[in-house]
Amino acid sequence: MPTGPAHETAHAPARGTQNRAVPARATGRGSGPRSSGKRRLGVMGGTFDPIHHGHLVAASEVAAQFHLDEVVFVPTGQPWQKSHRTVSAAEDRYLMTVVATVENPQFSVSRIDIDRGGPTYTVDTLRDLRELNPDADLFFITGADALAQILTWRDSEELFSLAHFIGVTRPGHTLTDAGLPKGGVSLVEVPALAISSTDCRARVAKGDPVWYLVPDGVVRYIDKRQLYRGE
Ligand SMILES: Nc1ncnc2c1ncn2[C@@H]1O[C@H](COP(=O)(O)OP(=O)(O)OP(=O)(O)O)[C@@H](O)[C@H]1O
Ligand SMILES: O=C(O)c1ccc[n+]([C@@H]2O[C@H](COP(=O)([O-])O)[C@@H](O)[C@H]2O)c1
Predict the structure, then answer these.
(1) Which ligand sits nearest to residue 200's alpha carbon?
(2) Does the beta carbon of 120 sit less than 6 angstroms from any atom of ligand 2?
């Protein structure tokens, strides 16, 4: 099992430098950064409690549309905006994320937000990833619901100078870049999967199946660790 940021070692070779920042299937807002010839590193932040196919499809689709070389999944340490509820242990969420992504050579998992300690702020995630990957342009992937909250995030005005943001469609949420810096965000349509971690946890608590909502290995991990049973 990797002990450090896997993205430092495991990534596919660059597949060209031509930046198609507003791909044909994108909803067409925002232009993204110009081609810089740098490696293109996607960043998928999330609490992943548990990781599900909605996360994986979003990352895969953005990787294809934006010609990303790699997507690094970054499980939160302490998601401060979820402090109203119990969040599973970081190690369980990290391991489920590793299990879910292990078969995709383009995907990796980073522990940076977990190992930093304290509440997780994306501004720290992006600063750290830029330091670890000086040769890369960063593309932060976020669902429509999270994008709508972004101005409530710590140092939100700095975020757009650290990465290009890619907002993806999510059933039940409106995807909009209203109020966000022009050119800082692209909006992308991804296959609609009405899956949420909240629903997965509720299903496990009721004894309902989560097969095919989360990867098979994650179903087994939840069972082995008896997660979400008492919720
Ligand atoms: N089904 C989905 N389709 C598209 N994006 C998604 C989907 N589910 C989650 N995301 C996005 O993935 C990121 C991480 O989400 P998170 O780990 O909070 O999952 P969640 O399902 O929203 O969890 P919870 O229900 O516990 O709030 C966020 O940017 C979120 O918007
Ligand atoms: O930076 C912040 O203040 C901030 C506040 C809320 C959420 N985020 C980030 O948004 C991503 C999705 O978060 P969540 O809580 O919906 O799983 C994840 O990378 C979080 O670290 C970031």
Answers:
(1) 1
(2) yes
The residue assigned the tokens 């960043």 is 43
Amino acid symbol at 217: G
Does the structure show a pLDDT above 60 at 5?
A: no
215 token code pair: 């990867």
Q: Is the CB of 143 under 6 A from ligand 2?
A: no
Amino acid of residue 181: P
Answer yes or no: is the C-beta of 110 below 6 A from any ligand 2 atom: no
The ipTM is: 0.99
Report which secondary-structure segment, H or E, holds 28.
none
Q: Which residue has the higher pLDDT, 134 or 20?
A: 134
Q: Is the distance from the beta carbon of residue 82 to the nearest atom of ligand 2 less than 6 Å?
A: yes
Q: What is the pLDDT of residues 144-179, one digit of tens each?
A: 999 999 999 999 999 999 999 999 999 999 999 999
